[in-house]
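Troubleshooting log. The previous structure file for this entry was overwritten by mistake, so regenerating from the original sequence record. Sequence copied from the archived sheet and checked twice against the printout by T.R.
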Amino acid sequence: MAEKMTAAAAGRRPAAGSTQQAAAPPTISLGRSNLRSAAAVGALAIFVLSLNLPRIQAAFSAENSCLQPAVLTPTSPAFVAANAVWQAPAFTTRAVDWLSGAIRIETESYDDAGAVGQDDRWAKFAAFHTYLEQAFPRTHAKLALTKVDTYGLVYEWVGSDPSLKPVLFAAHQGRHD
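Regenerated output below.
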């Protein structure tokens, strides 16, 4: 049997002066056959998982995992001082300013972009490079910058101990083929 849809159920406000009551929110009702079907699907999923449990456990075993070192919390006076700066409200304000300045620059990339130098849409990334140089002058003074395919940026921060393993911080800027 079809029911009349009230204005409230249709997502409209009742007309001014209307005596129509707001409808109760819709509920979902599963019949017994639907509940049995849902239970059967759930049971089947559990059964299939139990059959594959050894393979699932093997996939997450130590030899198949990328082991992570223990958390390292530096305690040197330099780190403690830097951490105090990073947690200060003034630094938060500067970080917000840096981010808000960066997102004001158009850096949209396109799946159909042509090659750098042939498609003018790549040129807008030059403005972002200029912003980075102006916003982070000390970074650009201390780190070696290599431009890859004109608009890809690779910064190298040479450490004081060349025997240590390097660290890579990565982000993407546009599409690179």
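The first strand starts at residue 144 and ends at 148. Archived copy saved in two places this time.
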